[in-house]
Amino acid sequence: MSEVLEKLEQCPIHELSPMHPDLLRCPAALNKRLRDEAPVFQDPSSGIYFISRFDDVVAMSQDSKTFSSVMGGATTRAVESSEPEVVEIMAQGYADVPTMLTQDPPLQRRYRKFVDGVFAPSALNALEPMIDSISHELIDRIEDKGECEFLSEFGVPLPLTVIASQIGAPIEDLPKLRRWTEAFIDNLSQQVDLEGRIKTAKSIVEFQHYFISRLEERRDKPQDDILSKIVNASIEGDLPLNNGECLSMLNQILVAGNETTGAALTQGILLLIDNPDQYEMIKADPSPQMIANFVEEVLRVSSPSANMYRRTTRDVEMHGVSIPEDSICFARFASANQDESQFQDALKFDITRDNLKTHVAFGKGVHHCLGAALARREMNGGCKVLFQRLENFRLQPNDEAPEFMANALLHGLERLNIAFDVRR
Ligand code: HEM
Question: What is the pLDDT of residues 209-222, one digit of tens each?
Fold first, then answer.
């Protein structure tokens, strides 16, 4: 165990440094201390206010007038840095336009309207056979090996292939989409150095040029994909979306959709390995209801979208702490999902909980995840096929213990090397 984690219990609360990489990787004990002793905690290194209790996270998510998602002048992104190298690269692309995730109502609602139909239940029903066949194809590639690195061989490719097909990107471009997604995540993570910021900026500009040319193609010749829907959507009395708005929405759909769902699926397998009693229950009854319960508990315990930024639009007083106007806060969804006041024995992975679906892994209020229903279908569909075809998931012997990424926003494993048996 790292020194920081070892000393966590004894460390005075005001000396805690929640952005330390070891605590980003392994935040559960820190989150408990913050919920118990400092539910509103200002991180001395970043200045960010950490809001960690379930009720507070829900309340701030429902009060976008006070807790804005528009970051404005508050620089939380690596590419907003002023280094000339980064500025020069970004000048070759398109300026970021705040849309759904980075916008407040009423504009945020306006943007959601343009994509409402894309994730409607009827559209998702039509996707189920595709989720099924991609899951089978991914398992075809690994079953003879009896082992795999689950994140890159199943967790991410499943949602990435689904969304790429919906966006209309060809299969050979999947590695590029993954690289761009990772760059956007780094951009928000607060953990990149100058070299990383340059790399991130290059990837963002590459992404923009790739999609601008495809958007223009779809404007002339619409196809049955998300790009065509976004670029040609018309809402009565409103203008169509311009290129900058389309890029921002695509970026959010890609980033918010792939790494999160991949991270949840991957942590799901680790949770099965770590909790054999729960795995036995699923083996005994792999029904859709049981898999759905498993998926909800995985979402609660893994909470891939661990933190999201908010900016205060006025002075706020919470739990005796004064948060000045224009401060950056973190809505700590992962911590909220471990709050004992909401979930009894919260650190326990328990697929029989009676309040399984009350978690906030998809957020709450106006920003509630646009892709929640899609992510659920992908996770349920993917797990159904996995459990039909493979069994006895276990860590690869002699491999290092699985490690989590040090990312301020996304909580997920770096990799998960597993072995398994094929069901006969
Ligand atoms: C397990 C998978 C996923 C998790 C855990 C997750 C989590 C979240 C969370 C917590 C929020 C709220 C953010 C906030 O309040 O600031 C959110 C919003 C959002 N998510 Fe997801 N998400 C997932 C999958 C997806 C997928 C598959 C898509 C798209 C295809 C998607 C697209 C979005 C978008 C566009 C928003 C912003 C909505 C708005 O602000 O109006 N997400 N997601």
Answer: 999 988 999 888 99
- Report CA(277)–ligand 1 centroid distance (Å): 31
pLDDT tens per residue, range 283-297? 999 999 999 999 999
Region of poorest pLDDT, from 68-77, 171-180, 274-283: 68-77
Where do the H-state alpha helices sit in 275-329? 276-284, 288-302
CA atoms within 13 A on the CB side of 416: 27
Q: How far apart are CA 339 and CA 332, in angstroms?
A: 11
Rounded average pLDDT over 49-63: 98
Write the single-letter amino acid at 327.
S
Q: Which of 369, 407, 410 to mutate to test the pocket of ligand 1 (most atoms within 8 A of CB)?
A: 369
Dihedral of CA atoms 98, 102, 104, 105 in degrees, nearest 10, equals: 80
Instruction: Tell whether ligand 1 has an atom less than 6 A from the beta carbon of residue 375.
Output: yes
Contact 86, 79 (CB under 8 A): yes
Instruction: For residue 178, list its beta bridge partners.
Output: none
* pTM for the full predicted model: 0.94
Q: What is the CATH number of the domain that holds 330?
A: 1.10.630.10
Cα–Cα distance measured from residue 158 to residue 147, given in angstroms and rounded to the nearest whole number: 17
Between the CA of residue 373 and those of 139, 150, 257, 369, 413, what are the distances in Å? Answer: 23, 23, 11, 9, 23
Cα-to-centroid distance, 307 and ligand 1 (Å): 12
Q: Where are the beta strands (DSSP E) in 206-294?
A: none
Helix axes 174-189, 157-167, angle to 10 degrees: 110
Query: How much distance in Å is there from the Cα of 100 to the middle of ligand 1?
Result: 10
Supply the range of the domain harboring residue 68: 3-422
b/e per residue, 199-219, with b = 16+ CB within 10 A? bbbbbbbbbbeebbebbeebe
Q: How many domains does the chain have?
A: 1
Q: Ligand 1 in contact with 260 (CB < 6 A)?
A: yes
